[in-house]
Amino acid sequence: MADPAASTLSVEVAYATPARQLLIALTVPAGTTARDAVERSGLATRVAGLEPATAAFAVFGKQVAADHPLREGDRVDVLRPLLADPKEVRRQLAAQGRTMGKAKGGS
Predict the structure, then answer these.
(1) Assuming Cys at both sites, which of 5, 16, 79, 80 could form a disulfide with 56, CB separation 3.0 to 4.6 Å?
(2) Which fold has domain 4-87?
(3) How does pLDDT run across 11-58, given as a tens digit for each residue?
């Protein structure tokens, strides 16, 4: 007889904004994808505008496809869209003679 625990996985779904962080622990069937886990988490009911069907995902910070199969202990990060293209911001700052990093040296 197969071990029932082997047919389930313990995973987490994470979503963060500058103001708050949500981390939801789940037990899901083996073969669950990143998108499936986010849908099962109920996160879309807690975060306005979140659409699991179109969201981008990462596992431990590395971007994955929505149909990426999860493994035991994975943390699915729901990625928010960028507000500005980092390359464009660098170009604008360079045109002003500035950089993205913190100023070096003391005052």
Answers:
(1) 79
(2) Ubiquitin-like (UB roll) (3.10.20)
(3) 999 999 888 899 999 999 999 999 999 999 999 999 888 888 889 999
